[in-house]
Design a protein that fits this description.
heterodimer, A: 346 residues, mainly alpha, ABC transporter involved in vitamin B12 uptake, BtuC, 13 helices, 75% helix, 0% strand, B: 494 residues, alpha/beta, Rossmann fold, 6-stranded mixed beta sheet, 17 helices, globular
């Protein structure tokens, strides 16, 4: 961009993140040693699972996709120091809306029309679900963390209720909807489980990278995050920008829900989200407003989740250890961020 | 002491004797604050030592400094406004093994004694938020004394006080140093108030000590000359704004008003403010801090809603050049670069999705040109505002606001915290803006500055504009009385 002294924004944060990541990995290894397990064996199992097993890589990518989409919304809002963490509820509502379109419209609708409609329904549902917390935050200064978290519970339980009642497949004794007709499934890439939603997600990454880092809108969000008073004095419409940010985070989480059911599960079912809305929070924190940086970070977290089971089966390490390790990693990265800060900043 | 490439203190010697009030003067960025921060243990010197009563001491934290009897009164007070004086003092204590209630009562009693003994006239039960700046300062002094301060370090203590409050402050400091073993260090860039009040004065320039004047040799011109170096602006006559100013410009007085403020209420049920300012006119608003100037400033700048009344001007929104009294809150984004801050008004509006223009080529050259024309050629557009001194930030805001060609300029406390040279620059810039046809409203608590700068001066008291006077024939005692709330004896509503 040529806007800032590069030393202060680019290289140093990357170095700091690496130091933090290394410290977190060491600490995780230490924890494993305390449990009497070999960290190297765990690492080998994780790498084997993700890269060399028949399903591991595909599983990881499918786990990464929703995580990444939700994290993109969070990180944009976080640039303005807005913690809009309603992704879990918005994801569910996006999934419900996409499923409703897929099951409600007749299968006579051509794929070229039906799929975009279903995706749009998911995006709109996520946006609407974010509207109330967003409006309260932007125009009435109601804490967005509380409202978005609470809206998650409502959204998740509303989804469960719909799965149990209206949308349920009456022929199967499971809590799930019927499978979507083929016209409402995202096209597969290479015939396997990977689907077009992944390409769509990468396109969204580039779009968010532009909006968050290059556009005037991104500039406003950074200004608001750094000093909302001076931003208002300079003429930035602070309330409107904040409202749009929360709506955008809802839209992206809704999109994630739609992509998940249309591309991965092909039906709406209980447990459609693997806590993506919460797992995306550390991804957004660590990405520091850099949409592209969120890709490897989300992949890392996806890989950890996917390898957790294998590590439990092969080495007897409880799969909960991965959650502990994730926490340690994030804590170390954040600590390194602050401790290694260049001098003269605060 | 070094900050990045800046050498803030370069082998500075400072001797403090018991029983003296020692002035530490220098322009913005001369290293005053760094020096006293070392004294208070906030920074550690890279080289050199602190010797206290013949003993070499290591001050690694404010706690060390307090234990050695060094107390600090910061420029920006560190008080919780919703708590009482006693509660603010108790906040900083180690509560282990003490119950809160009895502790408060004990502290309250001790504070009352200290207040009595040193003539601070501070009620330990008063809520801090309801106190004036001068009273809050005395709370900070009281807190330092409570911690056993024998050396009292005060950073820019006069910057928020009226002349009368300053006088009173020095009265009680004099009282304090009469006790054995007591010393006061006062930093300031307002030299005039120090002469006659301080026992000795040390002058810093560019991080070095250039001179220390004993009381006998302490004259305004000597101190100013030492402060300014060999610069041509060393002439003390030009330091006094009232004398340095040319005759007030009243050419625009007959033009139609560019700004008309009618029966404006700054608080619900508040009193009215009515005045008009013509294009080309400099209009001053005087008053003791906290009498509604802040509210008026924000309303004029379009940042606050008045409780009633109206503002008529021939201007669109955001057509007001605003030099805010609190530049760090309203003026700049400290995490942004100088260039980004200069362009902030321009980038704040318009289509959200168009790209931000990279700062190079013609844009970069125009930014550099702007910086040079405001005497900021030494700082790059890529520097973070965070790393600049207060005076430099003020100039950055000035450069941005005055380069927009606005027909209304609202400058609030424009020279507060600025050194002599920067203040002269600021006043000249405001005069140029008026000469170019803008209506300029200057809000300041420095009456001399307003009388030298503005054609007419209004005085605010308790949210009300109590009168408007012509600077040329303004009787100072009347204005001072009006600032104190004596009604508007003789002023004319304009």
């Amino acid at each position: 961009m040529g806007w800032r002294d590069a030393r202060l924004t680019r290289v140093r944060p990357a170095v700091r993140a690496c130091v933090g990541g290394a410290a977190g990995a060491l600490l995780g290894a230490l924890l494993l040693l305390l449990l009497g397990k070999s960290p190297l064996a765990a690492l080998r199992v994780a790498i084997d699972t993700v890269w060399f097993s028949p399903t591991g890589f595909v599983d990881t990518v499918l786990q990464t996709t929703p995580l990444l989409l939700i994290a993109l919304g969070y990180l944009m809002a976080y640039q303005a120091r807005i913690w809009a963490v309603g992704g879990e509820g918005q994801f569910h509502l996006g999934a419900v809306a996409a499923a409703a379109v897929a099951l409600g419209l007749s299968s006579a609708v051509p794929r070229a029309l039906g799929l975009p409609l279903a995706i749009a329904a998911g995006v709109i549902a996520g946006t609407l679900w974010a509207a109330v917390p967003g409006w309260l935050r932007a125009y009435h200064r109601v804490n967005e963390v509380v409202t978005t978290l609470m809206s998650n519970f409502v959204g998740i339980l509303l989804t469960l209720w719909l799965i149990r009642t209206t949308l349920r497949d009456p022929d199967i004794p499971l809590l799930q909807t019927p499978a979507f007709p083929p016209a409402f499934r995202l096209p597969s890439i290479g015939g396997g489980r990977l689907h077009l939603g992944i390409v769509l997600t990468l396109a969204v990454v580039l779009l968010v990278a532009y909006v968050a880092q290059r556009s005037h809108f991104g500039h406003w969000t950074r200004a608001i995050g750094a000093n909302p008073h001076a931003s208002r004095a300079a003429g930035i419409r602070v309330e409107r920008t904040v409202f749009v940010l929360v709506l955008l985070s809802g839209a992206l989480a809704g999109l994630a829900g739609a992509v998940q059911v249309l591309g991965t599960t092909h039906r709406l079912l209980v447990g459609v989200s693997h806590d993506f809305g919460y797992a995306a929070i550390p991804v957004a924190v660590l990405a520091r407003g850099q949409a592209v940086a969120a890709v490897p970070i989300a992949f890392l977290f996806g890989a950890l989740t996917v390898s957790a089971e294998a590590i439990q089966v092969d080495l007897g390490i409880p799969s909960d250890f991965i959650a502990v390790f994730t926490g340690v990693l994030v804590l170390c990265a954040l600590a390194a961020e602050k401790i290694l800060e260049p001098p003269g900043r605060g | 002491m070094r900050f990045g490439p800046t050498l803030a203190n370069d082998r500075v010697d400072l001797d403090l004797f018991p029983g003296e009030i020692h002035g530490l003067v220098g322009q913005n960025g001369s290293g005053k604050t760094t020096l006293i921060s070392i004294l208070y243990g906030l920074y550690q010197a890279d080289a050199g030592e602190v010797i206290l009563s013949g003993e070499r001491v290591s001050l690694r934290s404010p706690r060390d400094a307090r234990a050695r009897g060094i107390g600090m009164v910061p420029q920006r007070f560190r008080l919780a406004p919703t708590l009482t004086v006693t509660e603010n003092v108790v906040l900083g204590l180690d509560p282990r093994g003490r119950r809160y209630g009895p502790l408060c009562r004990e502290v309250s009693r001790q504070l009352a004694e200290l207040s009595e003994r040193y003539g601070l006239h501070t009620d330990p039960r008063a809520v801090v938020g309801g106190l004036s700046m001068g009273e809050q300062q005395r709370v900070e002094i009281l807190r330092a004394l409570y911690h056993g301060a024998r050396i009292l370090v005060m950073d820019e203590p006069m910057s928020l006080l009226t002349p009368r409050e300053s006088e009173r402050l020095f009265g009680l400091l004099n009282h304090f140093v009469r006790d054995p073993g007591r010393t006061v260090v006062v930093t300031t860039h307002r030299v005039g108030e120090l002469v006659g009040a301080a026992d000795r004065v040390t002058v810093l320039r560019d991080g070095r000590r250039v001179a220390t004047f004993p009381a006998a040799e302490l004259t305004l011109s000597a101190v100013l000359t030492a402060m300014m170096g060999d610069g041509t602006e060393g002439d003390p006559a030009s330091m006094s704004p009232a004398r340095a100013a040319p005759a007030p410009d009243r050419a625009g007085a007959t033009a139609p008003p560019a700004l008309h403020v009618a029966r404006l209420s700054l608080a619900p049920g508040g009193d009215s403010v009515t005045f008009s300012v013509a294009g080309g006119e400099l209009f001053g608003i005087a008053g003791v801090d906290g009498n509604g100037q802040k509210e008026l400033e924000l309303v004029l700048a379009g940042l606050g809603e008045p409780a009633g009344g109206q503002i008529r001007s021939r201007l669109g929104p955001h057509a007001v050049a605003h030099i805010p009294s609190d530049q760090r809150r309203w003026g700049v984004i400290e995490d942004f670069t100088v260039g980004e801050n200069l362009l902030l008004r321009r980038t704040a509006t318009g289509s959200a999705l168009r790209p931000v223009t990279a700062m190079r080529g013609a844009l970069l050259r125009s930014i550099e040109q702007l910086l040079r024309s405001f005497g900021l050629g030494a700082i790059g557009p890529q520097s973070l505002v965070l790393q600049l001194s207060g005076g430099t930030i003020q100039k950055v805001v000035l450069a941005r606001e005055l380069s927009r060609g606005c027909s209304l300029v609202v400058a609030a406390q424009p020279t507060r915290g600025l050194d002599v040279r920067a203040a002269v620059f600021m006043r000249d810039a405001l005069r140029r803006a008026a000469a170019a046809g803008a209506a300029v409203v200057v809000i300041s608590s420095d009456l001399d500055e307003l009388l030298g700068l503005c054609g007419r001066v209004g005085v605010m008291h308790r949210g009300r504009l109590v009168g408007i006077w012509d600077s040329a024939d303004a009787p100072r005692p009347v204005l001072a009385a009006a600032m104190g709330g004596a009604g508007w004896g003789g002023g004319t509503r304009g």
